[in-house]
Amino acid sequence: MDPQIQPFITKKAGQPKNNISKYLLMLIIPGLSFCSKGTTKENNFLSQDSLTQISAEWILDSTGCDRRRNPKKIRQLIIQLELVGKDSSTLIKYLGKPNGRNNLTNGVVFYYYLACSAKQRSNYNFYCYIEKGKLLSTQTAILD
To answer: Domain residue spans in the chain?
Structure first.
């Protein structure tokens, strides 16, 4: 008998018993939970008015001092509006002018302050990686 199949088949009273269904259930149940999590994400879908408000608050707090910049909400905006892969000018339309930029060999990093003090600014920023003029990814950095 194939050694890979052996763990799934046991003998009882001279008859082979197939335990494959037990293992299939172990695979199906987590899959069902994944499906239910997918529907939860749809419930987090924000209205256009909410997205507009998130963008406006982000832009109004241009230095991060008012603590209006919420990286989770702005990431939701970026996902819903499908800004990844879009021109960096489209990103600036929704996030405003970046607080700074670092040129890289293959692109540029825009950074937006999420806090006010000089120490916090260096430790708590929202980064947007731009390559070939298009948004590639985002990241929130919290350094201690």
So the answer is: 6-43, 48-142
pTM: 0.65
| Region of 64 on the Ramachandran plot (φ > 0 left; ψ -120 to 50 alpha; else beta) | left
CA 25 – CA 2 distance, rounded (Å): 23
**C-alpha to C-alpha distance for 98 and 110, rounded to whole angstroms:** 6
**pLDDT tens readout for residues 36-82:** 334 334 457 899 999 999 999 999 999 888 889 999 999 999 999 99
Q: 96's torsion region: left (phi>0), alpha (psi -120 to 50) or beta? A: left
Kindly state the tokens that stand for 97: 């002018």
Give 134's strand partners. Answer: 87, 131
CA atoms within 13 A on the CB side of 25: 4
* CATH number among 3.40.50, 2.30.30, 3.30.1450, 3.30.420, domain 48-142: 3.30.1450
